Amino acid sequence: LAGRSFHPEPTRIQVGDITIGGNEPVVIAGPCSVESREQILETAKAVKKAGAHILRGGAFKPRSSPYSFQGLKEEGLKLLAEAREVTGLPVISEVMDPENLDLVAEYVDILQLGARNMQNFHLLKKVGQTNKPVMLKRGLSATMEEWLMSAEYILSEGNPNVILCERGIRTFETYTRNTLDLSAVPVIKHLSHLPIIVDPSHGTGKWRYVTPMARAGLAAGADGLMVEVHPNPEAAWSDGPQSLTLDNFASMMEDLKSMQALF
Ligand code: PEP
Ligand code: MN
């Protein structure tokens, strides 16, 4: 169902008045984690002003250590919904397990399935039984074939609204957190009708490389970007080193507009 032969026309996913997979690239921006009302509202207003289309923010966080901050959970979802109210931006947040699916789906416009859950087949089937748009991130070491098969789990349950997200894969390189595999963009475009978003934040792990790789992602033909932004990255509760400041995000957007990668 994910293949071009089944569905030759590109899939367009409508979220409010935003089209993902249409003619114009879409920018999803916001903090890794929702931390407080002030933090999410300040970020939401700033990214909106700079031209972002969708607000992101984690409320359930898949952390490598069980002792790290795990997210504000429902409180975080409420704050995201409040930020949507204030800015009009649709919101996306990660769902980590089937138990919380109904709860997350109640608040968000797009469900995010994280890299660590790309092959959680039970969760894939459950989100496939909803009609919410789903952004499926590529697994930490997943091949493109495995990734598309995971999309197939969602599609085959009846939910056609799948967006793929390239977020870097694990390689021998350690200077960057992951290796952003931009070849995934043309390969997925060739094999599939599904939209693909590039995440240069998790893809590099260092804010300095985010703008160049965002540029490269759009040049490769991605349908949009997902970028982490924080008012004070040094104090961020997660993924500070890869987060753009509000000013750096605005500069990135100017940069992309000047290269006519964004409108
Ligand atoms: C995230 O988007 O903050 C995240 C946890 O991403 P990934 O699943 O790609 O690591
Ligand atoms: Mn993150």
TrEMBL record:
Residues 17-258 form the DAHP synthetase I/KDSA domain. GO terms for molecular function: aldehyde-lyase activity; transferase activity. It comes from the Bacteria. The keyword Transferase applies. Keywords: Transferase. GO terms for biological process: aromatic amino acid family biosynthetic process. This is 3-deoxy-7-phosphoheptulonate synthase. It comes from Marinithermofilum abyssi.
